[in-house]
Amino acid sequence: MGARDRGAGDLLSVNELALLARIEALLGSPGGRVLVGPGDDAAVVRAGGVAVTSIDTVVDGVHFELATHSPGDVGHKALAVALSDLAAMGAAPGEAYVSLALPGSVGEEQAVELVDAMRTLAAATGTTIAGGDVVGSPVLTVSVTVTGWADSVERLVRRGGSRPGDLVGVTGQLGGAGAGLMILQGAEPGDLAPDEREGLLRRHRRPEPRLAEGAALAATGVSAMIDVSDGIATDAGHLADRGGVGIELRLAELPLTPGVDAVARHARRDPAELAASAGDDYELLFTAPADRRSAVESAVPAVTWLGEVRAGAGLVLVGAGGAAVDLRGFEHTR
Amino acid sequence: MGARDRGAGDLLSVNELALLARIEALLGSPGGRVLVGPGDDAAVVRAGGVAVTSIDTVVDGVHFELATHSPGDVGHKALAVALSDLAAMGAAPGEAYVSLALPGSVGEEQAVELVDAMRTLAAATGTTIAGGDVVGSPVLTVSVTVTGWADSVERLVRRGGSRPGDLVGVTGQLGGAGAGLMILQGAEPGDLAPDEREGLLRRHRRPEPRLAEGAALAATGVSAMIDVSDGIATDAGHLADRGGVGIELRLAELPLTPGVDAVARHARRDPAELAASAGDDYELLFTAPADRRSAVESAVPAVTWLGEVRAGAGLVLVGAGGAAVDLRGFEHTR
Description:
By secondary structure, chain A is an alpha+beta fold. Chain A has helices at 16-27, 71-89, 108-125, 176-184, 194-205, 211-220, 232-243, 260-266, 271-277, 293-299, and strands at 2-3, 34-36, 43-46, 50-59, 92-102, 128-136, 141-150, 167-171, 224-227, 246-250, 284-288, 303-310, 314-318, 324-325.
């Protein structure tokens, strides 16, 4: 942990050295492979095999709104979206490095709440927060770099490995984060069940990286994988492009988070199209050779088969009536 | 490289997929230990020994001003300040992961210019840009995570190893970045030599991480090291605190960047006090057992000895007259 902009008082209301001391105390002494943790120029970690690394940044007003997200929601989400990239490779999480850019409107208690939620998710996923920095900024911005580990690159799953004849599957349920965002924006049906409402909001505010599922899918020999961050219509397109193949998905097969149907109909949108185009679900979309089907179902019961890989190029979405449907990726509303 | 906020058009004027494609083409195929580079969910790097990792963020209006810094200056500085932390550990640089948060006012050409300057510094330092992301933001913010490598943690230099009797040294020259900032803010003497002016501005805009010096100092057995990011008065205090020792520095011994003297006197400030309190020089401050003095001087000729480590606690700055001087760390002006 370090602080480089001492005195940027109009941007950073907290005493950053006091905040860093509280954060270091909160994080405690890192263990495991972390040999030098927060407090030095850099963290030092015992290495071996291959390191798998991703950086992600979330910005107030773009990826969340402080008006409707608690500081804990922000910390959780910033780490979750980074870890989701490790899940999509099938890597075991290792360390996280956190950069907090804090405006004057975020006080020390809120910053600690943000880090504490991150620490809770880190502990739940076997991740160690090994370093970071705090700077001033006009807008709350959290960058998280995560490093995971694997024995070799052959154990990992890349985006480009799909082959014609492979099946396309997805973990969990879709559309929940998008419907949760719609509720926050006022598009809420009057008869939505309270537990469904809470579930949708939680999918939006506290996404869960599918680390166990990613590791299990990698072990069964899936051919390609990506996390659903931009909406399945966009992310399946990435698999098709990187693999040099075509992908056909059946919208009627999409597993919908409970409540998505009600929220979509209230907004006069097709539930499956909402679930296909809305982002931020952080489920795992993958392709697998047909002979791996039962192995996949045994390893990860919460899998739904959605379509097939074809020779050719591009993504085709097949609607309930059997005709191709054109969708755009989810667009953040501001 | 990835992009998660498709459609945040008021924040991000560029087509981020087109920008990512240009960045990937600019970076080319990573080599060396990078097995999977930009374009997948995460980068994969062959690992061994220990990984040394630091994250740093620079923000428009806090760490630079787009009004007086080119996009290339911003890219260079963002990578340089991160690499400087590796230099301070004595680690060899490996990979960099870059998060660009771009406002609508930054176009595709400027973003490419930023990354291109980063790529130039990466190539000059043996660093591979192995991944990153692009998001929209109200303010230009660049987060860089760097990972370096060493055979073992014992080969690295930490902040807390100073012992009473050690000598205190610093690489290069001080005060140049601070005086360069003062020039940009209008505090410029009429008789400043053009080459000195350019030199001071360059120290502010294009700091150079002292990677070769850091590795050489680590090999000679220095006892503690830190990079001078907040001003030597602040950073020497960190060495004293982490080592549980006192440090005495003689201000009259400070090696001043040419032109600092003139800029300081023009602003009616003491040149040595300016050089001790101004940040962003990114030289290396270290302590070494007295018997390592000649080994250090052979390994890194551009070293100046500034003081000694004492039993006790805290930092004492001794002025030219022999009396203790009180300084505050450099404060960014906004």
